[in-house]
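Side project, low priority. Logging it here so it doesn't get lost.
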Amino acid sequence: MKNFRLSLLICTFFTLISFAQTIQSPSEFLGYELGTQFTRHHKIIDYFNYVSSNSVNVSLEKYGETNEHRPLYVSFISSEENSKNLEAIRKANLQKTGIIKGESDSEIGIVWLSYNVHGNEASASEAAMLTLYKLITEKQDWLKNTVVIIDPCLNPDGRDRYVNWYNQTKSTPYNTNPDVIEHKEPWPSGRPNHYLFDLNRDWAWATQIESQQRLKIYNKWMPQVHVDFHEQFINNPYYFAPAAEPFHEIITTWQRDFQTEIGKNHAKHFDKEGWRYFTKESFDLLYPSYGDTYPTYMGAIGMTYEQAGHGMAGLGIVTDNKTVLTLKDRIAHHTTTGLSTIEVAVKNTSKMLEEYAKFFDNSELKYKNYILRGASEKIQGVVNFLQKHEIDFYISEGKKVKAYNYNTKTTENFTTNKNDLIISTNQPKGKMVKVLFEQETQLSTPITYDITAWSLPYAYGLQGFATENNITFDSELVEVNKQNYTNKIAENAYAYLHKWNEVSDAELLGDLLEKGFNVRFSYKDFSVEGNEFKKGSLIIMRGENKHIPNFDAVIVEIANKLNKKLTTTNTGFVATGADFGSSNVQLITSKKIAVLAGEGTSSLSFGEIWHFFEKQLKYPLNILNTANLNRIDLTKYQVLILPNSYRANEQTLKKLNSFASNGGKIIALGSAVNNFADKEGFGLKKQKTKEDKDAKQLNLIPFDQRENESIKNAITGSIFKSTVDASHPLAFGYENNYYSLKQSSTSYQLLESGYNVAYFPENFEHVSGYAGSNALKDIDNSLLFGIERKGSGTIIYMVDNPLFRSFWQNGKLFFVNAIFLN
């Protein structure tokens, strides 16, 4: 018997050796030593596919495709037995969360490693291949109680943009001098995706196709640990957990402590090699849309790891300490932390699973329900958002509750109606609900890495309420009854009418204009044949659209495709308001719209504009390169959009002035507004900073307190309530107040001539997020959205960018109004 066991052990030993020899390393498979060149995305996937085809420990699943049609994959790595039972393991894991009903005694932990969300942080995907190889050839014991999920590249379009540029540009052999071209990545860089969005800030908002598809598979698995691999600038040491303050208040003591445990293990490995690193600085856990915070709020230990390198490092670069940082170094560091993370998870599986299950007990949350009330299409927008995250929602009519009112900041009696959307925190993802809907974020320190306010009721322009008591629901989870409109041809109709109060209405307008329709809008509220319409409502009259063959059929087809309800009238004689032939019913002309892109503009801001036109408005956009601007005849365009960060030189400013004066319209977003401030010929003036009585004492502040003092001048993504002139076309579709996400402390005076359409009054309300005491002094009587007349044209100033990251839904109609109604 002993001889049999010995023979079995020997056989197993040689089988493992043989297996390790049969699976090629990344270097062997690729035909070059890993780290001596960058690997294009398809070759990375080829390697993962090769390992999956030749290993019983690995399987590969395609979960999506990018805008440029590159595939998105995850790889599952575990023991042979676990690999045969992945579906059972997945379901048992979801039972721990309560997403699937039932008791789970599973002792299998899940660790998810995500690489290359920023395309030019390109060592990550190289490290993903090496980590996979080492797991199955050197660390098989770890796989007995663990499933490791590897996403080798979250952003293939950005990665290949960077890799293709670098491979075309680099010297042979590579040049380590930081001054040379191979270390000077051009605009827009490989960091963002196809539409130039930062995917690492899109986890919660899920505006991008990569994020949307990733969330589907992430929510199927809900890991206990999630790591996001990044790169930072070349002279920074490696960063790993624990994270910096502020931590969001829902993060548990266990999550904090286990981060530290993992960090200590990394430190042990880095100390052995003499590698520099830092922890507890820079990278906090607050903003919910990161690859570390989103998983954390879903119960995981979410972490960011940052390796020096970024888009300028190439294959090797000389750093400040005169040493050469190579791609091989970067791969080694990321591989070490990846394996170290799994090592700690394996050693602590039982405790990790126990604490993970506890996370989903939400009984201690103060607010039990969040309630949203408002326009049905805006409610539907929230429903679509919640469905991306598989968060439950309810409708329960006639429930009398006491609720905190977001707008008045008071508690009042409230009765739900059939159109209210109710989101309970008594569900597995209740803590994420709390984060997304909280009226005000709690900050342990104002020094943060990103914005500090994002509350969904304000973002969607809905009334928000929160109850401390449970609401009993009449039934289980229900679907919101999305209205489906089937418009019918009305051959005797004088006109077809459509409301104007939500950004999706603009898609209907865009389609009609592209088909050549004459469309008008009303400057006044009106009622006709018993139907009431607000300012901005669209009017499409049969009599001025005789040039459209099959007028009725075409307009009905467009509206039905977009699920938009049309109202017909047999007369242009209104009961109240202005008749359809009045000068108060203005024609909307088709616009040829241009936007600046290229060096000198924010690629992120340009991407927001580009994405909005192509994916939401679906209206043609002409993209002009800033390098060619002075050679372009702008008179061919009616609208010119300046993205955030664009800075015009003196020659270009004259060209812009001439364009506007001759009838053009300029829309300046964010800091692009500053091009016109305090300049001769323009009425925009910067807000005069109020005198700080302690200014003379500034230089007496101790060195280690300067950062805390300087943050008093900043606004880090905070929500402010503004006053709106709802009678102006720029504000059609809005009420007298608008909640704006202010992204900087730069303030401008109210325009002395022109129109101050939205502004912060003297008694302005700061609703949520951090705003420094000095910065707050400049907000009162400052401009938010304004219009200045220039000759026969206009300049529209949008101080807060309403398209920021595409998640502030309620601001988008201002942008559409700026394009079409002014």
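Brief comment: The longest helix spans residues 2-22.
Revisit when time allows.
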